[in-house]
Design a protein that fits this description.
The chain has 474 residues and is of the alpha/beta class. The protein folds into 2 domains: 108 residues, Urease, subunit C, domain 1, CATH 2.30.40.10; 318 residues, Alpha-Beta Barrel (TIM Barrel). Helices cover 29% and strands 21% of the residues. It contains 12 helices and 18 strands. The strands form 2 sheets. Strands 1, 2, 3, 4, 5, 15, 16, 17 and 18 form a 9-stranded mixed beta sheet that branches. Helix 1 links the parallel strand 6 and strand 7. The chain is globular, with a radius of gyration of 21 Å. The protein binds N-(aminocarbonyl)-beta-alanine (URP) and zinc ion (ZN) (2 copies). N-(aminocarbonyl)-beta-alanine binds next to loops.
């Protein structure tokens, strides 16, 4: 066979094995691993490098409507470019249903924004903000059939939160259709109570974002979400978990035999609430929900990654520019933390942070890195075995890592549309240098060579969690 591309002499890692092998790629897929790969149109020498499945970031917000006068910093072009440069080949942004409007309408607009713009493959989760009879009875079941097999519901944010009854009704659609529900766990009433107290005391600086969303608010909601999922009898993903008490809710549910997946994110390993204390409102750069906690919670999250409490490590990339009246420093947000848009950028730094701080420190091994950042995402969200692994027949989505490069994070060298990185100055060792998407070299030796539009939309099958084998939970 004449291969389109071969990758020679690398150390290949999957979620289960690390081995030396050459890889032959033909027509966008991995056609051969090992053996005679001499006849090739193009060759990459990966000596001394790791050859990993391209990262899949299953929690990303791009061009999402974020309130009057607020504009997200990334569109599909900049968001996927940044993801690609950070070693990702697929991202999963959220398509938000606007209240009172059909989900199909939001999807049509979202597809139009993504069409022809992407540097990585993309697949959409849905956000259900208005579970009307029509949405629950007709729209959602039809959308699951069409490959939108996961939806997120919120227990917080005034205009997004669902009641327990609405969450149960949405979970029931998931039960009947085989979709997967993701929950943002924070108790909105408790937050509102604390905001009232803070405002009465004139305590309105960014740091109040953290103290109005304490661990108890997240722990209670996590307990409620796993209980509601138990009542509805559905598997569940608890997204962006920040602390041990919420992890314990997940572990307790698992001991009862529930299929509950936990996700954590770089901000809960690398940041603390002290970052929100910044001078001159700089703390706004770190406002996200749940907020970063303390060093004890960081250690807890590392422990969760090591012990398997977490099966997903995603970025929750949700970028707003800082010095911008349409971003963090919007006219109201510059005066009161309550109006600072929630979310921070991180799609490009997710993988280097976990590689440098997790793999090179010996906290996790290379196979666990691959599982947490690509394979589990593919299995949990219905892209496996086409994506998330290196195997014959899989899409040739590959990131080649140089484990010896040390670089400081500098926003000026990143590729997103924000104007800062929350990790500015962080020294990281190990960076992706070459990225292949569907057999096409998109990043070569750190330089972007692919084209906008090379990435495509991918519909998904149902989660592997539903087929009884629970590959992730073991
Ligand atoms: O603050 C955050 N995490 N913003 C993104 C939206 C969400 O809740 O995931
Ligand atoms: Zn959320
Ligand atoms: Zn999010």
């Amino acid at each position: 066979m004449r291969f389109d591309l071969v990758i020679l002499n690398g150390t290949v890692a999957t979620a289960s094995d690390v081995f030396s092998a050459d890889i032959g790629i033909k027509d966008g897929v991995i056609a051969q691993i090992g053996g005679d790969l001499a006849d090739a149109a193009e060759t990459i020498d990966a000596s001394g490098k790791y050859v990993l499945p391209g990262g899949i970031d299953s929690h990303v917000h791009i061009a999402q409507p974020s309130g009057e006068g607020i504009v997200m910093a990334d569109d599909f072009e900049s968001g996927t470019r940044s993801a690609l440069m950070g070693g990702n080949t697929t991202i999963m942004p959220f398509c938000l249903q606007e209240k009172g409007r059909p989900l199909r309408e939001a999807l049509k607009a979202y597809h139009a924004l993504a069409e022809g713009q992407c540097y990585t493959d993309v697949s959409f989760h849905l956000i259900v903000s208005d579970p009307s009879d029509a949405v629950l009875g007709q729209e959602l079941p039809a959308l699951v059939e069409d490959g939108y097999t996961s939806f997120k519901v919120f227990m917080t944010y005034e205009d997004l939160r669902l009641s327990d009854g609405q969450i149960l009704a949405t979970m029931d659609v998931a039960r009947r259709t085989g979709a997967l529900v993701m929950v943002h766990c924070e108790n909105e009433d408790a937050i509102r109570y604390l905001i009232g107290r803070h405002e009465a005391e004139g305590n309105v600086a960014p740091t109040a974002h953290a103290s109005t969303r304490p661990i108890a608010v997240e722990r209670e909601a996590t307990h409620r979400a796993v209980s509601l999922a138990e009542v509805a009898d559905v598997p569940l993903v608890i997204v962006h978990v920040s602390n041990r008490e919420s992890m314990e809710e997940i572990e307790r549910a698992r001991k009862r035999g529930r299929k509950v997946i936990g996700e954590t994110c770089p901000q809960y390993l690398m940041l603390t609430s002290a970052d929100l204390d910044g001078m001159d409102w700089e703390g706004a750069k770190f406002v996200c929900s749940p907020p970063p906690r303390d060093v004890t919670s960081q250690e807890a999250c590392w422990d969760g990654l090591e012990r398997g409490v977490f099966d997903l490590f995603s970025s929750d990339h949700c970028p707003f520019r800082y010095d911008d009246t349409a971003g963090k420093l919007n006219p109201k947000g510059a005066k009161n933390f309550r109006h600072i848009p929630n979310g921070i950028p991180g799609v490009e730094t997710r993988l280097p942070i976990l590689f440098s701080e997790g793999v090179l420190t010996g906290r996790i091994d290379l196979s666990r890195f691959v599982a947490l950042t690509a394979t589990n995402q593919a299995k949990i969200y219905g892209l496996y075995p086409r994506k998330g692994t290196i195997a014959v027949g899989a899409d040739a989505d590959i990131a080649i890592w140089n484990p010896g490069i040390t670089r400081c994070v500098r926003h000026a060298e990143l590729h997103d549309g924000a104007d800062y990185s929350p990790y500015e100055g962080l020294e990281l060792t190990g960076w992706p240098i070459t990225v292949v998407l569907g057999g096409k070299v998109m990043v070569r030796d750190g330089k972007l060579v692919g084209k906008r539009g090379d990435g495509r939309y991918r519909s998904r099958s149902r989660s592997a969690l539903l087929d009884g084998r629970s590959p992730v939970l073991g």
